[in-house]
Design goal:
alpha+beta; eight-stranded antiparallel β-sheet; 8 helices; 42% helix
Length: 235
Amino acid sequence: MLFAIPAIMPCIVILIIALIVVMAVVGHQQAKKRRENLSAFGRHLGLHFNPNKDRSMDDRYPFFDALKSGDNRYAYNILSGEFEGRQIIAFDYHYETSSRDSDGDRRTTSHHFSAVIFGTRLTIDGLTIRPEGVFDRMKQFFGFDDIDFESAAFSKQFHVSCRDRQLAYDVVQPETMEVMLARPRFYLHFENGLVMAMRHRRFEPRDFHDAMHLVDDILDRIPASVREQMEPRHA
């Protein structure tokens, strides 16, 4: 019986190695399938697809905090082109965070999410709209409130903040609230004439499509009189 444990050890090691190989193969196949699906989705919309890594995204869009997290940051599976007359870039994004365990050993975790960035040509800065969470409600209890709107349902479901409160009211029109309540939810950040729609996980092609349509519909519902004030002045 004393010799049984050493005899089992090689089998356990082989099983672990086999499991690692299987996981690697499955991961490779899933990544390949995702590239194929996103490429087909891009062709359907007339967008260019590039599966390669782009490490410049955080420098190109430094005002989006989500692109500045962690280390080893890069975009991949990038879709770019025009959607409903507006320039867009959509992508998967990777970054890493590190921690140390009780023995002091460094452990690295990879994170992935997806996002779509729209060009608006409008000066809409410092506006964020996202699904309201438990911590938001806790902060409200202690007096840290967000911007409320006439629609109680919208104010309950979404957390809205902006450096200019009136700008938030100009963008989030009554029809816009109805649209957002009826559609899938995204984290929206308006800054420097751009809008980023994201979630803290990777999109399926349908999610990319939903995000694109949502942002496009929000921008289309900004009244012409308000839009004129947001357009940059040229000498």
